[in-house]
Amino acid sequence: MASPTLAASGEASNRTSPATSITKRRTLGNGKHALEVSALGLGCMGMSYHRGRIPDKSVSIALIRKAYESGVNFFDTAEVYGPYTNETLVGEAIQPFRKDILVSTKFGFNIENNQMAGLNGRPEQIRKVAEESLKRLRTDVLDLFYQHRQDPNVPIEDVAGTVKDLIAEGKVRNFGLSEVSVETIRRAHAVQPVTAVQSEFHLMWHRVIENGVLAACEELGIGFVPYSPINRGFLSGMLNPQTKFFAENDNRAGLPRFQPDAMAANWPFIELLTDFGHQRGLTPTQVSLAWLMKQKPYIVSIPGTTKAAHLMENLAVADITISDADWKAFDDALGKLTVEGDRYTQTERSRVQN
Ligand SMILES: NC(=O)c1ccc[n+]([C@@H]2O[C@H](COP(=O)([O-])OP(=O)(O)OC[C@H]3O[C@@H](n4cnc5c(N)ncnc54)[C@H](OP(=O)(O)O)[C@@H]3O)[C@@H](O)[C@H]2O)c1
Fold first, then answer.
1. In angstroms, rounded to a whole number, what is the distance separating the alpha carbons of residues 315 and 107?
2. Residue 207: left (phi > 0), alpha (psi -120 to 50), or beta?
3. Relative to the CA of 306, which ligand 1 atom is closest?
4. Are 204 and 173 in contact (CB under 8 A)?
5. Are 40 and 301 in contact (CB under 8 A)?
6. Euclidean distance between CA atoms 156 and 159, whole angstroms
7. How high is the pLDDT of residue 20?
8. Which residues partner with 35 through β-bridges?
9. Per-residue pLDDT, 10
10. pLDDT exceeds 50 at position 9
11. Residue whose CA is closest, atom 4 of ligand 1?
12. Which of 131, 160, 197, 293 is 20 to 30 A from 287 (CA-CA)?
């Protein structure tokens, strides 16, 4: 899709030379429960889970350490990634500089026969996961402990109260929530101040704007962490209807939005990003991440990658400047596009509130 409005935009945007180091910082949360983090974090899930071929452990450890050397101080994992193996990997990788960085992990599922087996937000399960995650991450405190998905059978006050107790015991520093409604955020925050909400947010999925989650975060002083900020890789322009996913370890193979017809129908997003990026020396991925950064100062994306070159490309986004007028033209063009295909299967959709 050509976008003449953008092509006609005369104002060139500035971009400093590609970053080798990310120095910009952002703050998630408020007061006693604020975390100062690098302007972009690193999502580690794909090194073990759901993103295809699993690289050799030494490659992923080197990548995590390269991120640290490049200024990243915010690393995201979860018990269920693997399960377990991703936390173990992250724990080993961060050990030499554990005190200099922040690690977030998540509870909320039963795991049986090495598979995710339904939701479990009961206090005893939260405590069990905390103890085990501490060991796998080789640490004595979890900087940010998110509920991964809300358990409808456990009042959120009980969840928040359990994390509050873990904070009092010094095992956890901060509380987070993922894919929850405004009402859940308010109820949880009243018991234990929430540092960050982590939910899907990118330029093909911005429900958190429409349903008030982002506004509630702003009002309550809660940070926001968009997960899958590149729409699971689609917004890079490197996936297309011919892409064959490695189905044994790639949930995209079963997601409606990653079926060939949906990817073909959604190609105008890639054309918009490519066109806008070409005029500014940026890749589609960089435009996508910059778009999230410009939404709010309390937004910190956690793009996932298994490749050093992609890591450096992604971190360079912290130094990009694009004028408001150019973003307005971009958003006008974006507003004309519609998305084909659900982001989740029915089971996964039933667990999210956005
Ligand atoms: N709270 C939740 O429920 C939840 C759900 C999903 C994810 N997450 C978190 O969010 C993090 C990121 O999410 P995600 O992995 O689903 O999606 P993502 O960050 O949107 O996309 C990751 C995919 O994009 C590719 N990619 C990254 N940078 C690229 C670049 N510069 N050029 C081309 N391709 C690039 C990666 O492939 P390469 O490896 O080839 O670079 C990978 O397949 C996860 O690691 C996890 O920590 C949380």
1. 28
2. alpha
3. 39
4. no
5. yes
6. 5
7. 64
8. 28
9. 34
10. no
11. 227
12. 197
Number of domains comprising the chain: 1
CA distance 4 to 329: 10
Q: Which string of DSSP letters, residue by residue, matches 309-334?
A: HHHHHHHGGGGB---HHHHHHHHHHH
Backbone angles phi, psi at 167, to 5 degrees: -65, -45
Full domain range(s) for residue 70: 4-350
* Structure tokens that stand for 256 in this block: 């409606």
Mutational pocket test of ligand 1: of 116, 177, 228, the residue with most ligand atoms within 8 Å of the beta carbon: 228
Specify the length of the chain in residues.
354
Ligand 1 — pocket residues by CB below 6 A? 43-46, 51, 76, 148, 178, 198, 227-233, 236, 238, 285, 302-307, 310, 313-314
Tell me, rounded to whole angstroms, the distance of Cα 103 from its chain centroid. 13
Query: Residue 280: which pLDDT band, with cuts at 50, 70 and 90?
Result: very high
**Residue 191 C-alpha to ligand 1 middle, in angstroms?**
32
Q: Name which residue sits closest to atom 5 of ligand 1, judged by CA.
A: 227
Q: Do the Cβ atoms of 301 and 26 come closer than 8 Å?
A: no
Q: How confident is the model at residue 33 (pLDDT cuts 50, 70, 90)?
A: very high
Mean pLDDT of 251-256: 96
The yes-or-no verdict on residue 13 having pLDDT over 70 is no
| Main-chain phi, psi angles of 94, to 5 degrees | -90, -10
Q: Which residue has the tokens 């302007």?
A: 39
- Sign of the C-alpha dihedral, residues 159, 205, 75, 306? positive
Nearest CA to ligand 1 atom 30: 310
Catalytic residues: 81
CA-CA-CA-CA torsion sign (123, 197, 167, 85): positive
Whole-angstrom distance, CA of residue 82 vs CA of residue 321: 37
Structure tokens at 1: 């899709």
CB 176 within 8 A of CB 108: no
From ligand 1's centre to the CA of 270, what distance in Å?
17
